[in-house]
Amino acid sequence: MTNTSENSRFLKACRREEVDATPVWFMRQAGRYMPEYRKLREKYTLLEMVAQPELAAEVTLQPIKAFKMDAAILFADILLPLKPMGVDFEFVKGKGPQVHNPVRTAADVAALKPVDTEASLGHVMEAIRILRGELTETPLIGFCGAPFTVASYMIEGGPSKDYRIAKSMMYNAPEVWHAFMEKLTTVLVNYLMAQIDAGAQAVQIFDSWVGALNGPDYEAFAMPYSKRILDAAHATGVPVIHFGVGANTILPLMKKAGGDVIGLDWRIPLDKGWDIVGHDRGVQGNLDPVTLFSTPELLEKRVKDILRRADNRPGHIFNVGHGILQHTPNENVKAVVEMVHEFSKR
Amino acid sequence: MTNTSENSRFLKACRREEVDATPVWFMRQAGRYMPEYRKLREKYTLLEMVAQPELAAEVTLQPIKAFKMDAAILFADILLPLKPMGVDFEFVKGKGPQVHNPVRTAADVAALKPVDTEASLGHVMEAIRILRGELTETPLIGFCGAPFTVASYMIEGGPSKDYRIAKSMMYNAPEVWHAFMEKLTTVLVNYLMAQIDAGAQAVQIFDSWVGALNGPDYEAFAMPYSKRILDAAHATGVPVIHFGVGANTILPLMKKAGGDVIGLDWRIPLDKGWDIVGHDRGVQGNLDPVTLFSTPELLEKRVKDILRRADNRPGHIFNVGHGILQHTPNENVKAVVEMVHEFSKR
Fold first, then answer.
1. Alpha-carbon Rg for chain B in angstroms
2. What residues of B are in contact with residue A208 (Cβ under 8 Å)?
3. How far is B121 from chain A, CA to nearest CA, in Å?
């Protein structure tokens, strides 16, 4: 069957409308585990690829062509706004992003530069425009990191196990923390609005590390800033997906912050998670990405279990509970997409 | 006030008996953040210190002397049983434990050696005997890792973000996984029993990484082995603490596996966590260890909040929700211990 993208399964599910089958896409699907992508990566760094709109668009399309995903997610990175703010970083193999000048003091925050989105991140919007020209049936998702998650990299200087430096700033220099979050949120709002203006048909806010926070810290230090972004996106009319990992105890607060669709990781059965979120919102998830390294038999069992728990209620988007991993067997990705469509056919 | 150790606040709380004040100890308290310990570490590696019973006992006592903790936890490491099994590892600064010959195949599992606990880990039991001679009022906690957590290091070769290799073994070679867990569990049971025989007055099973698993995987691949250890420890009559992190969605299963006291991390309010666990068990937690880097004002607020939620119900042991971090300001540790005692006085 064919859809125009505005009438696609994915956007319908975002709006909690009836669909012909459950839509499926995979976080971080834009290429990284695919041979087509790995081949391009031999020639370019990730940041070089993101900086070239044609290349970013090409990578975005790879999984759509190969696996018939129900949505395309722009090939980009949540850390792209850092360099325009004056915070330099690089991706180091085996270590993840390494920030050269972490933000730790009031002076560091004061030194953060305002960002002219189109001037410094225009290549992202250009990739979106190219993609909207190419994608006729598949909707395009834009995204940004949530302020807490982006700030945690900027403060810690890279991935962290305990977020000691970031939380210490919250606790011991709350005025520095809040000044930082204000600035960062403004940059992120403008960046996400520009993506929507350029043609993103839905957006996702990635709060990947929010699971490190307890409820009171989330409410005081992260939620107001996430809410600003979620509200701004919501006001444009595009569906908004609000994603976290390991955040099952703060799902009610994440819902309160905003989002038409709330992400569920694999730690909670989908029906229980949806009960907590409330049926007035959609949910996205919740396959453990490591399951994609298993057998067709186990995958079938897990896919069926998730679909059974979703019970064809309008508003479920099938996805992994966290980004798809490198080295994921491509045949399993293909199999899961087919299974979701087949087993959920209305 | 004085207690004999058997009549101490800590053991009473483990048995859900009334106490004069809430007992408090800190996971990984045995020295690592203390200047006294750092000084010893200039001369010895962690494994050298553990191997010398006098030194291990000395480190165990450091926080008892400095902070009047209500329980002492043996200075040791959950990975100590690896070398006797033939799996070599070392602690590498900035990387954590690095296993030289990870266990990944049926042949690797077959090659694992049975362990003569007293011959190869007797130094741990010797440290316990020394400590029982020195500690008159403070009870001593022995411990081991839960099979899943220990196996995850042995399979992955070190810390992991996704447990891809460990979970892949569960999914794709379940017979190898189960054979491995059988062997490992036998070693861990014997090791823990030897600690109890030597004088450990309570034991804790550390399933630090169990939060990576969803319910079905925990139930099929981890829980039966944890249960074997928990049952064996329980049968001796000493109180058993069952600890996990990020495991809030599987708390009912962890309770089912066993434990007189269930650990709660900081992601769940203590009263909600205790409701899930059930009031027929004690709970231990649930301060975010990073809070110890904050101000006396915030610490007081958080300590009072936890105590208010515990509501003086018998069976609460105050602790951090995960191990205390290096560089933790010692004056804050002292302050929290004093606050817990003062604010919880019956």
1. 19
2. none
3. 30
Q: Where are the alpha helices (DSSP H) in A135-279?
A: 147-156, 164-172, 174-198, 215-217, 223-236, 251-257, 270-277
* Among candidates B172, B266, B294 on the partner chain, residue whose Cβ is nearest the Cβ of A171: B294
Pair of tokens at residue B166: 């460990």
Instruction: Give the C-alpha separation, A62 to A73, whole Å.
Output: 11
Structure tokens at B213: 């698993």
| DSSP structure string for A328-341 | --HHHHHHHHHHHH
Dist CA A191 CA A195 (whole Å): 6
CB of A158 within 8 Å of any CB in chain B? no
The model's confidence at residue A32, banded by pLDDT at 50, 70 and 90, is confident
Known catalytic residue at B28 = yes
Domains of chain A by residue range: 5-343
* Mean of the per-residue pLDDT values of chain B: 96
Mean pLDDT value of segment B68-93: 97
Asked if residue B146 lies in contact with residue B222, where contact means CB atoms within 8 angstroms, the answer is yes
Q: What digits encode the pLDDT tens for the residues A198-230?
A: 999 999 999 999 999 999 999 999 999 999 999
Q: What is the pLDDT of residue A2?
A: 43
Is residue A7 pLDDT above 60, yes or no? Answer: yes
For residue range A259-304, list pLDDT tens digits in order: 999 999 999 999 999 999 999 999 999 999 999 999 999 999 999 9
What does residue A308 show for φ and ψ, rounded to 5 degrees? -60, -45
* E runs forming strands in chain A: 72-73, 89-92, 96-99, 140-145, 202-207, 240-244, 261-263, 282-287, 316-320
Return the pLDDT at A3.
44
Pairing of strands B96-99, B89-92: antiparallel
> Can A308 be counted among the known catalytic residues?
no
Task: Decide if B291 touches A, using CB distance below 8 A.
Answer: yes
Tokens encoding B300:
């007081």
B136: left (phi over 0), alpha (psi -120 to 50) or beta: alpha
Task: Verify whether the Cβ–Cβ distance B214 to A167 is below 8 Å.
Answer: no
User: What are the pLDDT digits (tens) for A81-122?
Assistant: 999 999 999 999 888 999 999 999 999 999 999 999 999 999
Give me the residue from A168, A211, A288 closest to B214, CB to CB.
A288
Q: CA-to-CA distance for A9 and B340, rounded, in angstroms?
A: 54
Residue B153 bears catalytic tag: yes
pLDDT band at B2 (very low <50, low <70, confident <90, very high): very low
Q: Any idea which architecture B5-343 has in CATH?
A: Alpha-Beta Barrel (3.20)
Strand partners, B145: B206
Q: What is the pLDDT of residues B24-38, one digit of tens each?
A: 999 998 878 999 999
- Measured CA distances, A62 to A34, A324, B285 (Å): 8, 15, 47
Q: What is the pLDDT of residues B231-259, one digit of tens each?
A: 999 999 999 999 999 999 999 999 999 99
pLDDT the model gives residue A217: 98
Cα angle vertex B217, ends B216, B223, to 5°?
Answer: 95
The pLDDT of residue A108 is 98
Question: Largest Cα–Cα distance of chain B, in whole Å?
Answer: 57
Smallest Cβ–Cβ distance between B288 and the set A214, A272, A291 belongs to A214
Q: Is A125 helix (H, G, I), strand (E, B) or coil?
A: helix
User: Is the separation of the CB atoms in A72 and A132 below 8 Å?
Assistant: no
Residue A226 to residue B27: CA distance in whole angstroms:
33
| ipTM, two decimals | 0.95
Mean pLDDT over A248-254 rounds to 98
Q: Which residues pair with B282 in a beta bridge?
A: B261
